[in-house]
Design a protein that fits this description.
- The complex is a heterotetramer, with two copies of chain A and two copies of chain B.
- Chain A has one domain: TIM Barrel.
- Helices cover 34% and strands 21% of the residues of chain A.
- The longest helix of chain A has 15 residues.
- The two termini of chain A are 29 Å apart.
- Chain B is an alpha/beta fold.
- Chain B folds into three domains: 103 residues, Beta Barrel (Elongation Factor Tu (Ef-tu), domain 3); 122 residues, Nucleotide-binding domain of ferredoxin-NADP reductase (FNR) module (Rossmann fold), CATH 3.40.50; 56 residues, no CATH class.
- Helices cover 17% and strands 33% of the residues of chain B.
- In chain B, helix 4 runs parallel beside helix 5.
- The longest helix of chain B is centred in the C-terminal third of the chain and has 14 residues.
- Chain B is globular and about 50 Å long.
- Chain B starts with 8 loop residues before the first strand and ends in a 19-residue tail after the last strand.
- The chains are: A alpha/beta, B alpha/beta.
- The interface between A and C is large, with 45 and 46 residues.
- The structure holds flavin-adenine dinucleotide (2 copies), flavin mononucleotide (2 copies) and FE2/S2 (inorganic) cluster (2 copies).
- The site of one flavin mononucleotide has 25 residues of chain A, from helix 8.
Chain lengths: 310, 284, 310, 284
């Protein structure tokens, strides 16, 4: 019997396939296609302190093997989230990883205090790939000091209850340096990668296609960047669990990220193309691993590094 | 707030027929249970491009007609404009090929319980969902006046048998190549005044819907508009397809046209808001 | 009559479509499919001081809408290049942009001295997206100081004869900062973007597919990243000419980069999929521009920025 | 150094026939002038996946046979294993569809001017280019012994009429499901000793070619090997397809198998060098 369970720090999940933040609605929309308990966990869309209407439209542009989005973290704010979304997910017996996002270092602290000790919440993903309004809109995770400050503030407010994962942007010169910084600041694990900054110009209007001009690139196009980032970080910090994501649309894709070092796989854009993508990926990954003789999922994590350890 | 279409399922739909009609392709797909579940105004989301496609997002198409064939499953019909890469791929499918389809999705047109005088306004392939609607309205004893507009004659989709269920049919084209020279909105006031219309149903480009809303406001008519925003998922998980919509509580929210729509109360949509968030939007 | 000519600093080219460095062989291979004079210019593969055998194989992996390569700058070295490749290109009356690459700051100076005042050479592209052996293999263009040093050394050795273009890597936190640095150091223009660092893991061997592990991602997958980088740099440095590249495979793609701010377009990976891609792109771009009412190519350069200037 | 095939052109090739034969597809393409220009050992590079393909690189296929039909153009034939996404797409093409093709590319097998005793060794679809070669050799009065190997019977490509031009045909399979149980290299020594073979031609996986080279060395035979490295462009511009090859000047260079190959002098190839650069390579 294949043992599909995985560990993310102190959390054990029955399988490693989870949704990607911002790509699974409130959970309800997907639960129409499969029970949420089939997932390792559902990762909620990044919640902020206050309600947010997000960016103006157009918010989306398709690109070769990918897409750009500038949703801008539209969401109901933490109060409504805790009052409506979380109880519904609990009613479904879903395992929940809550993603939080702030506009200031203090936001992260406040959010962390609100998401402590919630039944079914098995992890906190700290999305620090968002603009810091206190620092000219610079993205937190793009600077070691702000990345550190955001994570420290979460750590201080969350004890050892659930593991916290810092979600990093790939748009940096040295992702390993940022990863070290947030781990030193108290992150139990990492979520790699957020979208890559991109732009599409509409050749008819001859202006940027998104109202916000730039957006985040996701989908299979960025998978090689994700695999590289995960591999580099795993090589530098082999003990730190990684939630891997970026262009996973099949079991084969998921296997690439697992071999590179991911202990769990988030699926985002693929769900837009196929509502049951996560279920397909879960089945295919299990087949691929058993075909390759693995009895335990965890033995495959980081297996592509085995050369180095000889 | 949101109204997930709980009948939606994913299926492998086989192409039963694919014929070019004017500027469009009329495509019939066998879809099992989806046909029985479909209501006028619902749409389907289809994966395009085949096995090694670079197109990662589904494409949305309104259901033109649906026929439930009982235990033999059912078929739905689409009217597709070969516009970009995805729709060109779809219109190139041959009989017996299959496509991955999710549906029925979204809200449907509300049907009045009493016989009322309705106008159905369609722009381009936007006429597609109106014919099924017309049949139902007719069966309820409603007067149905239909107005179809397009840039030119070839882009009017109006099958002969579709005229069965309508009391009148007006065609407008921007270039005058068929029917009246002008836009549907220009024809509308006259029809409303002549027939004492009470309710407008519409489907077409946003600019057309906005113009219709102005007329609906003027005559104080209810306007059910099928709104077409660019969609990435069609099932409510991506938040790309939003328009500002005033809720029953008076609050404006960026609402998903794939779940809270495509059929929305035109009076509640904040039109012409692309590129900015209207003031007063919840959370903005 | 549409005026297709473009200016790159002091150089005027009859049209803006050029090859991408490393993607056109020695020129001979393509000249079988069209005369090289049809190109705005041919950009030669980055030449180093000494002959170089490049990286071990496998050097290539296809990715969704893209590819990874780790050719490793295989080439004959500057002596053989000047003796064989350049005279042949001159015999074809090709306009030549020579790309140079070094392993140390001093290399760049030496190379610059060798490529001065060569007939038909209309520009020098300085590939600083390569590892600096003197600094733990850090890529020159990923650090402001080494980027600056490399360009200063080229500038000092090349007078005003031909414009020099600094070719930058997108793998940085702030590409505008690097662009400013190299322009201050004397670059006349910029070449944006080089490949994005990526990795593919072979799910059969369960090891990185490339012998070198990581490689450079190119092709349509990275186009949104290229458009964004060009747009950002153009906004910050509107007077500096940009040779744009990254995933251009059609006239429509080229137009996106032109509207973002590119004065010339390099075509790389598309040539692998279609030997006559550059000719197709040249024709399609001309049609698209005339359809949109442009009489002069240069009027379209950066046109997507017109909002800002109102 | 490099030997650009100056006959290469790009064309839109129409599928004339596409039939499944064992594990392969036998595909006939009409290609105008390419047929007349093709020599045994040459290959073609085909764009795969269609209009919205995510596959950006061409796929290389050896020319199995070529028939020049004079002013009517000509056809070439391919033997394709539906292996990955690209070859599956190609083998799914229907008659009358067209594919974008460049060819003929690469070097061809050298033909001896005198009648000599030759062995032709093919692995899997590697047999494809050998049949055309066999005909030419036979016409020159050469003795032609053919050895074809594969993992199992279905993967041997050996058309009946292909046997016309050979003096003997030996089949080997790794699983013993057809012919001798074992690898082609194991059968080789016996044939060489029985027939006094002078020259080996080979086409197949790298490991097979390497094993053949060892035998060629042992018996001191010339070995023309068609080398198959992973190719991105097929026309010499990308440098991805290289193998270390000792030149006539004794210097080892990373040489392009698409231009200096695919047919190379086996004695000059530095085999088993994947993953490292052999010592002494020029520039390394
Ligand atoms: C609810 C709904 C119903 C629709 N019904 C029909 C129909 O019955 N018949 C028909 O021909 N078309 C219909 N459309 C429009 C159709 O979905 C788009 O034309 C189609 O997605 C274009 O895909 P493409 O690849 O051919 O074009 P491309 O322009 O290449 O599409 C690129 C991207 O833009 C999006 N997009 C482009 N144009 C539109 C558009 N007008 N609306 C929404 N998204 C767009 C696509 O989803 C895709 O992600 C409908 C759209 C919606 C939202
Ligand atoms: C000179 C030459 C002649 C060939 N002749 C034939 C033939 O006659 N019949 C036939 O069936 N196949 C032949 N091949 C192999 C064929 O090109 C590959 O199997 C094919 O490219 C795989 O494409 P794919 O998309 O199906 O597989 P994928 O595995 O999806 O290919 C992915 C990538 O890897 C490359 N690749 C994968 N496997 C190989 C391989 N074995 N050799 C080279 N590149 C590879 C592809 O070019 C592509 O870029 C030949 C290859 C070469 C170089
Ligand atoms: C529409 C959309 C919305 C997203 N919203 C969020 C978000 O709220 N928080 C977050 O951390 N990441 C967000 N992401 C990033 C994804 O979680 C994921 O990191 C990225 O898309 C790469 O994975 P993929 O290629 O599988 O989509 C979003 C991505 C998309 C496409
Ligand atoms: C096989 C290959 C080799 C390359 N060699 C070089 C090189 O020698 N010097 C250089 O500056 N860029 C090199 N590049 C980068 C290209 O010039 C170009 O910047 C990049 O590929 C993006 O453009 P594209 O998407 O059109 O290929 C190479 C790219 C590829 C794919
Ligand atoms: S299309 Fe994804 S939420 Fe509406
Ligand atoms: S395949 Fe590109 S050089 Fe040989």
């Amino acid at each position: 019997m294949f043992n599909y369970s995985t560990s993310l720090g102190s959390t054990v999940l029955p399988n490693p396939i989870v949704t990607a933040s911002g790509c699974a609605g409130s959970g309800k929309e997907l639960s129409q296609f499969f029970p949420l308990t089939e997932l390792g966990a559902i990762v909620t869309k990044s919640i902020m302190l206050k309600p947010r209407s997000g960016r103006a439209t157009p918010r989306m542009a398709e690109t070769p093997s990918g897409m750009l989005n500038s949703i801008g973290l539209q969401g109901p704010g933490i109060d409504s989230f805790l009052e409506n979304d979380i109880p519904w997910l609990q009613s479904q017996s879903a395992r929940i990883i809550v993603s939080i996002a702030g506009e200031s270092v203090e936001d992260y602290a406040s959010l962390a205090r609100r998401v402590r000790n919630i039944p079914n919440v098995v992890g906190i993903e700290v999305n620090i790939s968002c603009p810091n309004v206190e620092n000219r809109g610079m993205v937190f995770s793009c600077q070691p000091d702000t990345a550190r400050a955001a994570i420290e503030n979460v750590r201080r407010n969350i004890g050892g209850e659930v593991p916290i994962f810092a979600k990093l942007s790939p748009d940096v010169t040295d992702i390993v340096a940022i990863a070290r910084e947030v781990v030193n600041a108290g992150a139990d694990g990492l979520a790699l990668i957020n979208t890559v900054l991109g732009m599409v110009i509409d050749v008819n209007t001859m202006r940027p296609k998104l109202a916000q001009k730039t957006g985040g690139l996701s989908g299979p196009a960025i998978r090689p960047i994700a695999v590289r980032a995960i591999y580099q970080v795993r090589a530098a910090l082999p003990k730190i669990p990684i939630i891997g994501m970026g262009g996973v649309a099949s079991g084969k894709d998921a296997l690439e990220l697992v071999l590179a070092g991911a202990s769990a796989i988030s699926v985002g854009t693929a769900t837009f193309g196929n509502p049951t993508a996560v279920m397909k990926i879960k089945q295919e990954l299990e087949s691929l691993l058993t075909e390759r003789g693995f009895d335990n999922f965890v033995d495959a994590v980081g297996f592509a590094h085995r050369m180095e350890s000889l | 707030m949101s109204a997930i279409n709980s009948r939606a399922v994913q299926c492998s739909a086989q192409v039963v027929s694919n014929k070019k009609v004017g500027a469009y392709h009329h495509i019939i797909l066998s879809v099992d249970s989806i046909a029985a579940a479909a209501r006028p105004g619902n749409f389907v989301a289809i994966a395009v491009g085949g096995a090694s496609s670079s197109l990662v997002l589904r494409r949305a198409f309104a259901i033109y007609r649906a026929a439930d064939k009982g235990s033999a499953g059912g078929v739905i019909e689409l009217v597709v404009a070969p516009h970009g890469e995805g729709s060109k791929w779809l219109t190139a499918r041959q009989v017996h090929e299959t496509v991955d389809l999710v549906g029925p999705l979204g809200t449907s047109f509300g049907i009045p319980t009493e016989p009322v005088r309705c106008i159905l306004v369609g722009g381009g392939y936007g006429s597609a969902p109106l014919f099924g609607l017309a049949e139902i309205l007719k069966a309820r004893g409603c007067r149905v006046d239909m107005v179809l507009g397009a840039s030119s004659a070839g882009k009017i989709y109006a099958p002969l048998d579709g005229k069965r269920s309508v009391s009148s049919m007006t065609i407008t084209t921007d270039d005058g190549s068929a029917g009246m020279h002008g836009r549907v909105s220009e024809a509308l006031s006259q029809i409303i005044e002549e027939n004492g219309s009470e309710l407008i149903y519409s489907c077409g480009p946003m600019a057309m819907l906005e113009a219709i809303q102005e007329i609906a406001d003027k005559y104080n008519l209810v306007h059910q508009a099928s709104v077409e925003e660019s969609m990435a998922c069609g099932i409510g998980v991506c938040m790309t397809c939003v328009v500002p919509l005033r809720g029953s509580d008076g609050v404006i929210r960026m609402s998903r046209t794939c779940i809270d729509g495509p059929v929305m109360d035109g009076a509640n949509v904040i039109w012409n808001s692309r590129g900015s968030i209207p003031e007063g939007t919840w959370g903005a």
